[in-house]
Amino acid sequence: VVLALLAACAVAGLGVVAYGTHQQRVDEAAQQEQYGDVLAAATTEAEAVVNLSYRDAEAGIARVAAGATGDLRDRYDGSAAKEARVLRRQQSVMVGQVVWAGVVDLVGDRATVIAATTGTVASARTGNDPVTRDLRLRLDLVRIDGSWLTADLEVVD
Amino acid sequence: MARRSRGTGRGTTVLLVALVVVLLAAVGAEAAYLWVRDEPGVSAARPVTTGRLAQQSVVDVASRTVEDVLSTTWRDYDAHADRAADAMTEEFAGEYRESVAGLRDRFVADRTEQEMKVVSAGVVRATSHEVQVLLFLDQYVRKAGADAVVRPRRALVTMVRGDHGWLVSDLRTR
Fold first, then answer.
1. What's the ipTM?
2. Cβ separation A21–B174 shorter than 8 A
3. Do residues A99 and A116 touch, judged by C-beta distance below 8 A?
4. Which residues of B touch A19 (CB under 8 A)?
5. Is B171 exposed, middle or buried (0-12, 13-18, 19+ CB in 10 A)?
6. Distance of residue B129 Cα from the nearest chain A Cα, in angstroms
7. pLDDT tens profile A110-127
8. Distance from CA of A40 to the nearest CA of B (A)
9. Which residues of B60-81 are buried (b: 16+ CB within 10 A; e: fewer)?
10. What average pLDDT does range A149-154 have in this prediction?
């Protein structure tokens, strides 16, 4: 009887600890999966920014706007026609991809990501010859309704 | 009467033993859940399997180490290479020594001084034994008779946990 009582106490004690640990692991897993979501969203937005062509300017600008929010979205939405005109006038063709991306900070619904891109840009200025353009980008993202959107994007000079 | 009492007593004992066995099995299962656990593998969906503080400490080590490894001068080129190799795994130190040996003559002839400063750092992947960090660096290069030049660089450094701390196991710059 004593042994059974001791075993029951052990089960109860460890059960409390195990439940707490389980909750902690579930929270950790959810938090860690946010890193994947944040990096995927930042990569998509960065690649939208470095892939713009005068041939389908409006569609390219719409892709950038789709992954943006706040002032950044307003900037692309509000001046889409003007941006498209500039691309066409310059005959700009930007092609690129994200080589590496890393999370600088991720707290709650806010995250900062840096992304290294590689690619080329061709325009009237380059005689329409593609010139290498490697960028260092910094993106501030916010989570809205479960989706990570870019609120600010800057080139780190 | 006595036979029935003996039978009831034996039944109670069997019940108690069975209860103890079940309880001990439950204790074992709980202990296994708490202490026997494989770390989940990293994937695109879950590139990080460690906590924020653990990641940050490795990012700080990676930033300092890469600054030290890539900042050198013609005056103590060889001694610096030896010191830098101490922060690397044996295998990567071999690749690094080959690489710096190939650049040595030009570096010394031009009296080059190179300094690297980390301007931003982010976690690409992280487990408890390996962390990949993306670094944005500014490279300051001075050569004899020429003005200093600053170039933006990007580096991907892989750190692995060694016996006495974190070591560089790969370093790629672009």
1. 0.85
2. no
3. yes
4. none
5. buried
6. 16
7. 999 999 999 999 999 999
8. 8
9. ebbbebbeebbbbebeebeebb
10. 97
pLDDT in tens, B11-49: 888 888 888 888 888 888 877 777 776 777 888 889 999
pLDDT, tens digit, 9 for 90 and up, residues A50-103: 999 999 999 999 999 999 999 999 888 888 888 889 999 999 999 999 999 999
Best probe of the A interface among B12, B38, B134, by most A CBs < 10 A, is B134
pTM of the model: 0.84
Report CB contact under 8 Å: B46, A18.
Answer: no
- How large is the average pLDDT for residues B134-148? 94
Interface residues of B toward A, Cβ cutoff 8 Å, are 16, 19-20, 23-24, 26-27, 30-31, 33-34, 40, 43-49, 51-52, 119-124, 132-134, 136, 152, 154, 156, 174
3-state secondary structure string, chain B? CHHHHHHHHHHHHHHHHHHHHHHHHHHHHHHHHHHCCCCCCCCCCCCECCCHHHHHHHHHHHHHHHHHHHCEEHHHHHHHHHHHHCCECHHHHHHHHHHHHHHHHHHHHCCCEEEEEEEEEEEEEECCCEEEEEEEEEEEEECCCCCCEEEEEEEEEEEEEECCEEEEEEEEEC
Query: Residue B154's pLDDT band (boundaries 50, 70, 90)?
Result: very high
Per-residue DSSP letter, A79: T
